[in-house]
Write a structure and sequence with these properties.
This protein is an alpha/beta fold. Helix content is about 25%, strand content about 20%. A 9-stranded mixed β-sheet has the order 6-5-4-7-8-9-10-11-12. A 3-stranded mixed β-sheet has the order 1-3-2. The longest helix has 22 residues.
Amino acid sequence: MTVVVADPQSERRVRARAQATAILDAPRVPRRYTRPQDAELDAPRRRRRHGPRPRVAAPRAIRVRHPRRVIAAAVLLTEVTVLVLALVLPAFQVRSVTVDGTRLLDARSVVRAAAVPHQSIFMVDADTVRARLVGLPWVASVSVVTELPDGVRISVVERAPLIRVRRGIADLLIAGNGATMKAPASTVRQWSAVPALIDDRPGSAKPVPGSLVQLLATVAQRFPAVFGGSVAAFEWGSDGVFAIWSSAGWRAVLGHLGTADAIAALPAQLAALAALRGELDLQHPAFGYVDLDNVATPSIGGIPGLPPEVLSVGSAAHARITSSAVAPPVATPTPQPSPSPLATPPPTSH
């Protein structure tokens, strides 16, 4: 038999385990607490860590409204009030309509055509008023603005007349778009610089073709640079013959312009006249007319000078002409060959 001798440390461990086992296996006696009847119980001072915590009611937050909403509501109410007052107050009702830029058109007729309603100035539709005025034949452009407290201003840009047609003692202005208007008697001098067409064709007033109006305006503009003088007047005679009077006292006879082909041939006739500058003194002429009815054989003759009917149109272009340049009325010349026939010149721009 083998005897094991344990060391002191192991022996202590064995004893501790045996004692612990005896404590765990021993029956448990419930703990009883008794207190005297007169003794009062005190709350424990130690706080439980795992027990339920009492709910403390949070203080009710005081709700403060943001001032921006109040300010926005006040501003909106103010704007609505001002708008209502602006629409209904008599001080903002349209009372005056002013028209600027009219020389040919009557300001009162422009106001009637504008038809600005008598309502609040803030309700005036400027685009609608502008559309009514642009539809007028002599109105090129227009602007409409409102002026506080009760005014509307209309600024008109009129179309410039290209030709002034003299029939008898009355002048008829013709614009580039074909619009016609009798020249106001109070503004005759104002339109004296517009190229004049003396229309003596018999019968009722015949219209001037639009293509001829554009062509005559171009001729009057370029005439000084090409021929060294200005156009005193265009003349459409009672016999249907068309002529251009120069401020130097001579005229270019172009023949009948009753057809579109005759009007289309007018630039070639003027080119033939420009080719004669090397042989004729167009600024100090010794002749009264140049007949270009046949550009191949132009004829030259007559006495220089402007007849009274040409001077009566009052063009500023020939205001410098003296009375010595005035000649008696000259009948339409019969085509005659010039002393030295001229070859047909090539067409040139003028």
